[in-house]
Amino acid sequence: xxxxxxxxxxxxxxDGTINEIIGNNLTDLVFCDIFAGTGIVGRHFKTKxxxxxxxxxxxxxxxxxxxxxxNHKELTDKEEYINKLNxxxxxxxxxxxxxxxxxxxxxxxxxxxxNGKKIDAIRTxxxxxxxxxxxxxxxxxxxxxxxxxxxxxxxxxxxxYGAFLKHLKKSAQKPLLITPADYQLxxxxxxVYNEDANKLIKRIEGDILYLDPPYNSRQYGANYHxxxxxxxxxxxxxxxxxxxxxxxxxxxxSKAQVLNTxxxxxxxxxxxxxxxxxxxxxxxxxxxxxxxxxxxxxxQVFSKEYQRFQADRLENRNYLTNKTTEYLHVLRx
Length: 333
Prior knowledge:
By secondary structure, the protein is of the alpha/beta class. The chain has two domains: 1-65 and 183-214 and 250-333, Vaccinia Virus protein VP39 (Rossmann fold); 73-181 and 218-248, no CATH class. It has helices spanning 11-21, 40-45, 59-70, 78-86, 95-100, 113-131, 137-153, 170-173, 197-200, 220-223, 225-232, 258-268, 286-293; strands spanning 30-33, 51-55, 191-193, 206-211, 271-279, 298-307, 323-332. Strands 3-2-1-4-5-7-6 form a seven-stranded mixed beta sheet, sandwiched between helices. Helix 3 packs across helix 11 (225-232). 42% of the residues are buried.
């Protein structure tokens, strides 16, 4: 997925920094990715550590990580169920079609009519299988994750769901096809949570705590609201032109609250190493982060310039020249 703040292009930088400060052998360590997003960092370290603890307050994120991190054994019948989902015909009375497609009559066009109907049919079938105990919990989240990622590929947006495009773009015109969200196999059990990071931190412990909180006022719950709607698939009354749902408002997106919230997390963390990803355009300055973290142990900082994500990149001809600097703030408590 194209995702705001994705660390996919920075994995080598993160991995190299951890190897430099901790060493190359992480096999006995517990790694926590407490603002997991799509889980790309946790997935990178899944086979390198003893256990991943993954968390995010957004339910779509929990769904992705419950599959990619939580699932670690082979599901022998997963291809059979993917084929069954792809063979379904769309339905006319589903929530996505009625609320987020032009044919539904609400003047929203997040998906083509055909794809909206197909999403409803597939989401309904997955829930029916779960309710009737025809699939395991592991298979449920594998199928739901596969649906979310496949639906995202044919969404009629400029990557985020703050608005839809006036006309169906080429990728949104293609028929929805569910592709399997295959995950890494290994012998270790992992933990996946759907909680407020500052509350969860009081109940967990480990060796490496990786922090990738929101940097600015952009709320993930608003920008990816439709993924939560597909993941939860519970009725509500969408608001406004964009069909927004009620969403979590992170204190890390508030200039008035971020400093106290961040320091509380650092103070309460029962981890030897804390690694914070934060770029030079965030609400907290580099110096402020340094002053907070150095109170609790030995502090270092590493940096790397990279191309940043642009939500409107389809219309931004200068996208490839837009760069920012990512900082890894490292604390050894």
